[in-house]
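Entry for the shared binder. Reason: the reviewer on the internal report wants the predicted structure included alongside the sequence.
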Amino acid sequence: MTIIVHHLENSRSQRILWMLEELELPYEVRRYARDPKTMLAPPELAKVHPLGKSPVIEDGDCVVAETGAIVEYLVEKANGRLGPPAHRQLVLRYRHLLHYAEGSLMPPLLVMLVVRRLGLLGRPARATIQRMIDRHLDYLEGELAGSEWFVGDGITAADIMLSFPLEAARQRAGLDETRPRLIGWLERIHARPAYQRALAAGGPYAYA
């Protein structure tokens, strides 16, 4: 059965397209453009899910919202592919990073986005927020010591979940060549054939 992905441009839903390509699961993209003035999702998405957010997937009668929940759903659907390695400590690391991406890393990045849009009014808060972001980036730089991927020796759904916030940090929150492990990781994910296919399927994406 073909999975329908309700995909908002330049959003978290790009990760879902990438994951589906990695898993080689059949899917169809229904693409939505942001309002050019507010940059918010269009009202049509509220017809899919009451929150009007993306990503949302439909798999038969099943509708799943929230990126982390969708990622876990797809790992289960693919019989554990891209899930954690079979080692207790790596399972815990995988679970932590899977939820850390949205629960801890993404909030200060969103705050920075809002503050920058405030212009001069937001400038006094930038340094404080940047210090918060830098702490996360330093943490993740350290987590890549000795490995190309965040959990074990191969790519997992934890890498996919971390892709959007780290791409956003590269664009607007100080992630640069002073953290070479993270930059190398971004280069590796962007070079993957499945990632490139997802870009072609989803349309223009500002963070790749």
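Summary line for the report: The CA atoms of residues 3 and 59 lie 5 Å apart.
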